[in-house]
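From the thread on structure requests for the teaching lab: each student submitted one protein with a one-line request. Submission from student K.M.:

"Model Serine/threonine protein kinase from Alkalimarinus sediminis, tokens only."
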Amino acid sequence: MQGCKQSAQDQHVNERSAQTPVPTIEMGTVLSERFLLQELLGEGGMGRVYKALDLRREEVQDPNPYVAIKLLNENIRSMAGAGIALQREAVIAQRLQHHHIASVYDYNRDERHAYIVMELIEGYTLDQLIISEYPDGLPAVQSFKIINQLIDTVLFAHHKGVVHADIKPSNVKVMPNGDIKVMDFGLARVMSLMNMASHTDDKEVDAQWRHRSLSDAITPSYATRARLHGRQPIRVDDTFALACVIYLILTGRHPYQRMNADKALKQGIKPERPSQLSKKQWSALQSALDPNIDKESCALNAMSSVFCTARRKTKQQKRKWISAAALLLLCGVVIPVKGWFTEQLPVWQIRFMDADKQVEHITRYMADDARAKQQALQDIYIPVLVERWGRQWATHEPLLTKPAAEQALIASMLQQDLLVANAVAPYFLAHKQFVQSRYDLQQARSKIIIEILMSYDAQLGSHLAASQPMLVSDFMSVYNHATLLDLIAGSSALIKDDPRLNQLLRDAMNEDWAAGRYLPLGEKLQVAKALMPENEDFKKAMVRLSNLMSSESADPIEPLKNRLFLNDNLLDEDAKRLIHPPILQQLFKELKVATSNQLDLNPVYRGYLTEVHDRFIEQGGDEYQWKQWLIKADLDYGRSLANWGQSEEAFQMLEGVLTTQFRF
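Reply posted by the TA:
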């Protein structure tokens, strides 16, 4: 019964698609009175993807109101069965819930258009990244990370019974944190499913879609010979395409000079071995790069075994687990119950006590540095910490979009977690899971510091550029930024010691004083004193205002009536526009941590630094000084990695600095 109902719905969608004229999509079109199309993100043989503003999300002030909208191209939408194909793609994509596959939220339609609502992914496509930044291939660490994720993603899809059928660099997005998202799962595969399954009995429709699936949904330079010659997509087609993408990642070049399989074989082109690969890795990749790859090939599994670190270590881990289990059973028999309570019960107390007391109790507990105590911490406390840190800080949500009370709470919680991590770190630098979790905490901290400093600098820049006085709300905003910086970094000196801020505060209060706006002036002085309690000028200004408001006569210092501060011109106009160097240096340092030294993959951070650099140079800044700050940030990051127990990463980082950046 349900199948009949679905068939009827499909037929209805099919008929509507055939009868309704398909209008051209333009920027500014609103779909279903909800999704405002703003930008064309990409276009392929079958469809286009747009950036769209979700008006409902915007209405409730969602900090991330944007989505991606996918529509079929005009020539495809005019065909019978187009709506069915798009709906099938959404169904297939929704089956693939994986952290490296772009999420599909919904299939929808209005009176004119059928479309898919998807996750909007920031970042570069893989081909954009390689062309613009890495024409000779990505660095080894970064490339193997992406290769790992690509192989795992394709294996996951195949396990779910889904073939991508159009794997290529433009369908892989590299996100700001260096991870990847594979896009466009489903559409080419939907064509095949519609041809092979009984979705419709209309032979003409079936023939139309069969033709489309074999012509429009293929990228020739990433297709096997069998696929080029009309075979429906199967798993080995993904394996060949994936191998071509991996070769491109490693070398910056397509293995067959972007020729299709027929032309490449005719000209006898043979890919050369990338220098980063071992013999086993090259052998596995070479098998997958065969345009005549056999449909029963195990090349994908072979690549997984030699490229994916986790899989290579699985057997060894299993042996370790079995040995550990046997050892625990033995220890359970040998160790007396008394020892359990006397040595390990304090750890249970630490585990369940209030967060603000944990550092003190850990320090007291480890005063006598006994091996048994370290083992107790590792077995009972560390797993709980790691699990909770992963749950709370794995993803970064913008802090400043939240209510002020919640901002302070989040910053305090993160700082407390960092204090706990630092307290136990000396005992667990060899504990890989703890070391990684501690680094994740540092990344979360750096992202919040970056958010605070970028917001603060943007706010200051807008006032300096427009020469507009700061309002009481602006004073409060700066004070809130400084308070958060105190909580998360332990000091807000970067903001309090900024001479540009000092000058703006004085300018705003001088203007209120001259205009006789004493009430807002008093409010601003209160905030300024709280922000900079040691500033003598603000204290004297408060006294002057109090005397004026309480005195029955005019201000006794009549010549200075129009000036609240005696030294009110601390900066010249150029100095006001230049960035405060300590803030810039701190941003460099935090950006290295927040992006795992992959700043070039984050368009938001990268765009911000480009803007600041241009402003710095235009105002007479020294390019050499800028590069020196970058080098110092690299060295600081390398030292931090070493302190966090990531000695191998620290060595690679410092080696890179010595071999490249010191040439300036």
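TA comment: The chain has four domains: 2-118, 124-312, 321-444, 578-664. Residues 169 and 245 are 6 Å apart (CA to CA).
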